[in-house]
Q: What sequence folds into this?
């Protein structure tokens, strides 16, 4: 009995041509199962790592067509070694435990990581992963599979508008229930940039800690300033050798999480065996940098394969534009500052005079009163809310209200509420100079710099506040 065959040129399946592959690959529907095999993917409570990622068609009239599905299965097979290999007497043998059916594929790796990729109802691509533990291998496989799905979608479904979602680890069960609560990856990226602890689901009812959704995300705790340095490829410093101060700062971000620390060690060890130091991450990073003259670009090449963002910028996904943030600003905010006997901060910090020279802000502009229009636009300049509440002079009750607002609606919205309450208490003292000085006192040079750039661009030399 003849079967329909879809021929696909190898160059369409791989990003780069493979010279030794001469023949074409074909997709043979008659050789795979029509229905999903029984027990192909079961939630196992004894596995500590469960991950679910969904790529959804946004518009009702859009669908993932058969060609996309066929090419995706072929690409996954080629990329992850799932294709049969000829053994004795030209009999194909599967090298890994692999099941293929009309809408998906599922396989297990020698390291015990199980992966399922399926197109659900022609409108969703689901990626499920479970493993005995979170490891360098499981995170790298997760990122690679997501990247493969996105690349295939971008090539064959360019006209389709899609969105990405994550499932709570406890709800990663097969088959996919598309009506359950999910968490937008764009919203998660925004929470990561703003350092908000929780994200709200698509139903708006179930907030969940970002650390629960992404238990070992390399970019989750580094903050916006480090992300700006890592992902701004137009920055002149992007390909310059990384400084000791930067490595010290980013190491301190990762060192709070033992599981992530172990994974970063593995990633560095994979780059070069000579610089691995299992006791001190900062020393290992410095040895790796010195061994390869590593830059921000080099560090991205180590971290991107471990991230759920799969090489994309969290800033871009969050809708936050890149800026010319410099390492000098980062170091001025995070430099090793030891408390003196008087409790003040030792070490060099930015001053308002330096900011005035850098951003060309005048005293008249700094002394202008902040109005509602400013509050709407300024709120995005701040990295968190809690640190500013005492400095803004809010009462205990007001602080509680703002913190609750931050939990429900995020940093930017909560900062608007805090600034409004501050301005209501003493409108004549609510000037740009006061806000910049508060940021500098809190050692938030990056925030102060963004405030001054806003003042330079948006605040006239003389403002009529009537």
A:
């Amino acid at each position: 009995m003849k079967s329909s065959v879809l021929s696909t040129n190898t160059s369409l399946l791989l990003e780069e041509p493979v010279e030794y592959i001469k023949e074409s690959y074909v997709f043979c529907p008659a050789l795979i199962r029509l229905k999903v095999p029984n027990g192909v993917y079961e939630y196992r409570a004894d596995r500590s790592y469960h991950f679910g990622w969904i790529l959804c068609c946004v518009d009702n009239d859009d669908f993932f067509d058969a060609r996309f599905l066929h090419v995706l299965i072929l690409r996954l097979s080629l990329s992850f070694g799932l294709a049969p290999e000829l053994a004795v007497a030209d009999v194909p043998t599967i090298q890994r435990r692999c099941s293929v059916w009309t809408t998906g594929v599922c396989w297990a790796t020698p390291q015990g990581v199980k992966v399922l990729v399926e197109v659900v109802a022609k409108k969703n691509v689901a990626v499920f992963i479970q493993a005995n533990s979170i490891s360098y291998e499981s995170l790298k496989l997760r990122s690679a599979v997501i990247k493969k799905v996105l690349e295939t979608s971008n090539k064959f479904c360019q006209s389709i508008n899609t969105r990405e979602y994550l499932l709570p680890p406890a709800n990663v069960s097969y088959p996919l229930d598309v009506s359950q609560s999910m968490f937008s990856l764009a919203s998660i990226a925004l929470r990561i940039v703003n350092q908000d602890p929780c994200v709200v689901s698509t139903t708006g009812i179930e907030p969940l800690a970002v650390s629960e959704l992404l238990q070992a995300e390399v970019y989750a705790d580094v903050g916006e300033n480090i992300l700006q340095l890592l992902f701004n490829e137009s920055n002149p410093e992007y390909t310059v050798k990384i400084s000791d101060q930067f490595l010290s700062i980013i190491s301190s971000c990762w060192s709070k999480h033992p599981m992530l620390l172990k994974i970063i060690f593995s990633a560095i060890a994979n780059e070069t065996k000579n610089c691995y130091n299992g006791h001190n991450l900062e020393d290992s990073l410095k040895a790796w940098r010195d061994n390869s003259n590593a830059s921000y670009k080099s560090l991205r090449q180590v971290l991107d394969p471990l991230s759920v963002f799969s090489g994309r910028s969290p800033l871009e996904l969050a809708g936050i534009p890149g800026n010319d943030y410099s390492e000098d600003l980062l170091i001025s905010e995070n430099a090793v500052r030891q408390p003196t006997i008087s409790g003040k901060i030792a070490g060099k910090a930015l001053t308002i005079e330096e900011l005035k020279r850098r951003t060309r802000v005048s005293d008249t502009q700094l002394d202008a009163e902040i109005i509602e229009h400013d509050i709407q636009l300024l709120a995005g300049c701040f990295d968190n809310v809690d640190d500013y509440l005492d400095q803004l002079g809010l009462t205990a009750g007001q602080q509680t209200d703002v913190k609750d607002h931050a939990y429900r609606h995020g940093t930017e919205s909560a900062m608007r509420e805090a600034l409004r309450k501050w301005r209501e208490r003493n409108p004549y003292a609510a000037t740009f100079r006061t806000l910049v000085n508060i940021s500098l006192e809190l050692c938030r040079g990056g925030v102060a710099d963004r405030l001054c750039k806003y003042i330079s661009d948006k605040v006239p030399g003389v403002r009529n506040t009537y």
Summary: The first strand starts at residue 6 and ends at 8.
